[in-house]
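Review box. Two proteins, two foldings.
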Amino acid sequence: FGHGKYESLSGLIEAILILAAAVMIIIEALRSLFGGEPTLYMEGLWSGMAVMLLSAVVNLFVSSRLMAAAKKTESIALESDAWHLRTDVYTSLGVVAGLLLILLTGLVVLDAIIALAVAVIILRAAFGLIRRSFQDLVDQSLPVEEEERIREIISGHCTDVIDFHRLRTRRSGPNRFVDLHLIVPRTATLEEAYGIVKHLEDDIRHEFPRTNVTIRVQPCTGEDCSACGVLATCPECDHHSHASGDPEIEGQGGSGKSVPKTAP
């Protein structure tokens, strides 16, 4: 517990190494383009191409298995490792493709052009990994679609929950963290409130495995609130204005949204 960011840090370091590899490819390609007429040596060419193709096939197989494991475990460290191997795959295939085109056309410059194209693909992957790793390290919120799904799950408990606010989310390695304040009917017993929270936590974890959910329960302070299925007597009331009574959120719009209710 509390060490998930080591994985994000590991992913960031490996992504930087992938970025460095792409930069080196670009430098060598530019040297080949502007450093004079490159020379193609035919000795051992075919055997070298065969070795590179075999290496590419092996690395592609291993990187695919790693990528599948990364998606299953949501591990950015494994994903970075998979991309590291896939960098070798793209490089090998780029070299082979360049050599074949040179043999067919006689244009030696094609090798450098293909190398630049491969470098662009690697750069794109590296920047994506760096961005995601950095977001996890600085506790950026979960993606909008995931937060919206969490809101929908909470709203699905409208028969038990009056409202919620202060929804905060983040990632730490493969784990998600969800924190919110939940407003329940003031007549709910401790056992009933615990049951509501437990059910809500289970629903969120069912949708998003490996999620740590922290819920602070607050009673509704409205005496006649139509949003409360137990106490509802008035036809309408704005429970945003009086339901929570939490002084620490006064003046804040709250990060949650109303859970719709109908009076019995």
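Next protein.
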Amino acid sequence: AGVRASSIATSLPLGGAEQRELQIEGRPAVSPKDAPRVSVVRIGAGYFETLDLALVRGRGFTAQDGRPGSEVAVVNQRWVERFAAGVEPIGMRIRAVSEDAQAPPAPWVTVVGVAPTVRQSGTQGSPDPDPVVYLPFRLEPARFAFILARRQGQAAALAPTIRQEVRAVDEDQPVFRVRTLAESFAQARWPYRVFGGLLGIFAVIALLLSSVGIYAVTAYSVAQRAQEMGVRMALGATGPQLTWLVLRRATWQTGIGLVVGLGSGYGLSRVIKSILVQSTADDALTYVTVVGIFIVVTLVASVLPSRKATRLDPLVVLRAE
């Protein structure tokens, strides 16, 4: 079937992971309540090759890892940044203790490799990727696991072959959720796409309503000042001078609104920053875009009515008032 690499894992990237208490040999012990937590994924040999991930340093797992005398682990770069900054991680002895009281005692394992950081548990609770400890699947076998396979060409074509091979080993073994990694990622992100799309629609509607409101208020303000503009024209004011007069007042009012709005928006974005995806509370592009739109609306709402007013005969304007 053209399979180039295959492996097994208890969880996929963005699919969540078991949270365990981390202990590092040689460092002071802390209470379970204060102990750091890490994500633990049990994987088979060839896991990183199957996902086409090159290790940063050290090595991955072999078929012998996980047997007595070969208790090893691989950590990701995020783990190194948090727990081994300035220290050589290869050779460190660590232990990932399960919170399940029925679980067997966690063995001490030796770090033999560092993998690139891959987001394991989505963005819930923290915008930063979580530190991950990869353990050999043989060290702690699980009842449930994902089979991973990589082939050249259409990956979806592997589904019938995988079902056939599993059925050849055990006819009663169910195989479900057969999908490509891209499909798994899409499913993990669908809540963000749905709610993000809805919020985006509401944001566009709010932006349109705000723009229409600014235009209407500014245009009405200019219309109300028609007599004033007629008097100024009668006294010798030119069209550009009157346009600048209107524009200056409208810009001042818009500026006050932008300061209040941007301040409130920035404060709100800091509150919801944990659920922002591919964006931050300090996203300059968003602020610049919003400011630019409102400035353009203000210019249009000020210049067009004022230019129309300056084309009128001052005597006609004064007589009408």
